[in-house]
Model the fold of this input.
Amino acid sequence: MKKATINFISLLAASVTLFSACYLDYAPENTLVAEKVFKNEKTAEAALLGNYVRLNVFIAGAPQDQNNYSNSGYMLMMGELATENITVRSSSADYTAADESNYTTAQHDYMLYNMWYWGYNAIDYANNIINGIMEYGEYDPKTEKQHIAEAKFIRAYVYFYLLNAFGDGALTGNTDGDGVVIRLAPYNGYNPNEIQSRSTNAQCWETILKDLETDALPDLPDEIPSIAQRIRANKTVAKALLSRIYLYKGTFTNNMDDLKKARDYAKEVINTGGYGFSTSSDEYSSALFPSNEYSQSGSYPDPQTRSNELIFFQPSRIFTDNYPNGMYYYKKTSFYVPNTMKLNYNEHDVRRTYLIWQGSKQEYVSDSTTMKYSGGQYDDVLYIRMAEMKLTYAETLARIDNNISSEALNQLNDVHQRAYPDAEKPTLFTTADFPTVEDFIKEVLKERNRELAYEGHYRWDLMRTNNLLKDQKLGAIPSSKWNLPIPDYEIRISDGKIKQNTGYNE
Done:
């Protein structure tokens, strides 16, 4: 893989402006001529790196006053909303709406629209790159193929998360339900005679897997970059994402073909040399989630050490003046970590004693937040890491074999044991601890939440395993409303060709 340095990416994140189409009805406003951009390697790669920026804006957001990005990281936070991981304050209308699956016009016009908006923005970026290189590229053919493969990786990643959020029953086995609008060519603007309807969930899964597994994977590089450079797709990153996709796709229906794919890709990632998994509980504070708390001197720390278990991430210090990353959990103004969440962890588990913490000392002092996004604007955004792969491997082994193997136990024990200081390590799990295979799977799922909480997984895990989403005030949310509604604007502008999800038709 061509290793762009952080400084190179910093410059691009701050200055490259390409193909700014975001809505389904607006044409892109090209500020550079496509032929000039994609003719040579340097400018084509600049466009590609801009696409990674858009991917991050879609998933994790960016501050409203930076580079005109206005997304608030709803996609990542949606992985926790309507779960027991966070408690939403009644004063926060957007998060309350998501927590209750009860959306008003205000959420349709802003929160839901932003998620849709930035998803299709990143997709159109990818479409322009793919089409532009194929049509105008005149540089090394192998590098051209790699750049196209990376753009298809990004497109698949975005469609996957749009489908999780908006696909009507996509994670609960409804293959015939409406998914999302699939667009694989650069968008040329609103034309009432060319309005596309939503593809089925089955068609969306097929498109995502073709992009990632069939097209992108063969042309992505094998090389394992240094930790700081794990910001672009390679074969291992693609396999890790494929493992997640097949797990999500296959769990609800217990589809053995999908689960075997999830298992095999997870195993390949775990066995890939160059990545690691620390057994020390210090890994959380020293490398995975170092404190980025704002200091009295008026600055944020700038931790340089990162964990070797990172497979794919977005660094916070890409360019702090113009493109800071991070979420806003630490202020606790919109939501907080309830005490019941702490009880999911044993007493000496450092994820309880370190990762759940006080946060802001000026606002809601008695409430807790998460250390994972403690700096407000300056936290690395972790997309994929080794702990997820180990737990996916453990879960799929048990589901496929209907048996608790020593290998599945080893993967669960690795993650569970790592969370305790040496003097407080618990007894290793054995088969005797689990009367049934289902009991073992439940423990793996609990460990997934303990380990991956606030990284955007839990809502989707609950949906794929048919566990109810819950609202603190209203009780369980009906399964017809587990997915988000399509933004009203998209339905109106399509003159009804784009249909609303079934749970929101009333």
Observations:
- The chain has 19 helices and eight strands.
